[in-house]
Amino acid sequence: MTAWIRGKKILLRPMTEKDTENIVRWRNEAFVRENFIYQKPFTAEGHKHWAETMVNTGRAVQFIICTQEEKPVGSVYLRDIDRTHNKAEYGIFIGEEEALSKGYGSETAELMIRYAFEELQLHKLYLRVLAGNERAKKSYEHAGFVQEGYFRDDVLLPGGYQDVIFMGILNEIKSE
């Protein structure tokens, strides 16, 4: 099992089955859900299926973002880990509203990028973000992600079609 990752403001600990209730609650919060491409109601059964088919098989790694006092405030994950091309998709959400704008997301990104490149030996991380999510785009750019593509009317969400931005970051230290 992966060890805890310690930062200055936060701790990342491996997700367990006990985190299901928090993850379901967080993902169903309007301020979280409206910024995700997948906006359908999140269920415990769906999360357990994710854990069984993605996390337990090594196709994903997921951590719980905790304060230094070990209070869970969100989650971060690498999904669709591709060992052929050494890449994965990055995803994050802060689920506790009082934890927003405290730098937790920025520090989480730094820690996860280091984990992906140093521990998992990945070459690239990528992500998809709704074009209107300025807060997330700025955070990703601060972490070193750059825009690689802009897809107009890419997803149909409540309210109509939305544009999606693809961003990526390369492991510049390791060359193959």
UniProtKB/TrEMBL annotation:
Keywords: Acyltransferase, Transferase. Residues 10-172 form the N-acetyltransferase domain. It comes from the Bacteria. InterPro entries: Acyl_CoA_acyltransferase, GNAT_dom, PseH. Its EC number is 2.3.1.202. Pfam families: Acetyltransf_3. PANTHER family: GNAT-FAMILY ACETYLTRANSFERASE, SPERMIDINE N(1)-ACETYLTRANSFERASE. This is UDP-4-amino-4, 6-dideoxy-N-acetyl-beta-L-altrosamine N-acetyltransferase. It comes from Suilimivivens aceti. The lineage of its organism: Bacteria, Bacillati, Bacillota, Clostridia, Lachnospirales. The gene is pseH.
